């Protein structure tokens, strides 16, 4: 009789141990699974960002470093640098409305990236002004309505 009771207790002890072990195993598995899921979701988010940048429909003007385009500010951008200094960094310049696209924003238009470092009295709202090399190029460019630009990075 005593032996049977001991066997019963042994079975109960084994059963409890098994339940605890399974519980721990499930807990670790779930934690791992959640981590994996989290990483996968993170990767998905990164992919989404690189796959499609936010876009903006704008009116685009073009200007050049000359006096006709900039008056007394010829060759300068409104962030205080010279156009040459900005271009030395390998950046294309564009002017924008700083309340729409703050200085330091990078936008992509027609496969080229432009850095917002300038503004202008006529450049308000969804309007940008891209800096071209020569005045003749700006005349050829004219004004383009309803153009799509991508916002690569916004400050
Ligand atoms: Zn010009």
Description:
The protein is an alpha/beta fold. It folds into two domains: 1-52; 54-153, Beta Barrel (Barwin-like endoglucanases), CATH 2.40.40. It has four helices and six strands; from the N terminus they run αβααββββαβ. A six-stranded mixed barrel has the order 1-5-2-4-3-6. Strand 3 and strand 4 form a beta hairpin. The protein is rod-shaped, with a radius of gyration of 31 Å. The protein starts with a helix and ends with a strand. The relative contact order is 0.17. The mean pLDDT is 86. It binds zinc ion. Zinc ion binds at residues 63-64, 66, 68-69, 135, 138.
Percent of residues in β-strands: 25-35%
Number of extended strands? 6
- The CATH homologous superfamily of the largest domain: RlpA-like domain
* CATH class term of the largest domain: Mainly Beta
The name CATH uses for the topology of the largest domain is: Barwin-like endoglucanases
Quick check: average pLDDT? 86
pLDDT below 50 for ≥5 consecutive residues: which ranges?
none
In short:
It contains four helices and six strands; from the N terminus they run αβααββββαβ.
Keywords:
Barwin-like endoglucanases, single chain, rod-shaped, 2 domains, six-stranded mixed barrel, binds zinc ion
